[in-house]
Amino acid sequence: MKDNETRKKFIELRAKGMSFDKISKDLKTAKSTLIDWSKTHLMEIENLKAIELEALQEQFYLTKSARIEILGQQFERIKKELENRDFSDIPTDKLIDIFSKALNQLKQEEVEVTLQGEGNTLDDLITATNTVTWKP
Questions:
Q1: Which of 12, 36, 60, 112 has CA 20 to 30 A from 45's CA?
Q2: pLDDT tens profile 92-135
């Protein structure tokens, strides 16, 4: 019977998506044993997969405000470029199409401002739930 360290390593490797064949070679354990372990430790494997996925999302996923900021910066750069262009280099329809697409992306990120409570004081406003709508 294999020790607990081998089982833990199996769970980690399986959660990372490694095949039974590869794990079998790495851990020098029969594939049939690994399949049994997979059934026994299915919840642990799935939980570890979820934790690793969450860490990746946190690392690479942009928050809504970050997406709005990036899109807003692109929008402003394109807008400035449009203002400075005489349209001799790039066809106007292409540049306007890019501008329109950026504007549509910004509209998709639009959220409605919602303030909760009485909201007549600064403290009330600060503690109120709010989101900001940015409209170009």
A1: 60
A2: 788 889 889 888 888 888 777 666 665 555 555 555 544 454 45
Q: Which parts of the chain fold into alpha helices (H)?
A: 4-15, 20-27, 31-40, 42-60, 64-84, 92-108, 122-127
Amino acid at 103: L
Distance (Å, whole) CA 78 – CA 69: 14
Q: For residue 11, how many other CB atoms are within 10 A of its CB?
A: 19
Burial class (CB in 10 A: 0-12, 13-18, 19+), 44: middle
* Tokens found for residue 60: 């690479």
**pLDDT tens string 9-50:** 999 999 999 999 999 999 999 999 999 999 999 999 999 999
Domain boundaries, the chain: 4-60, 64-127
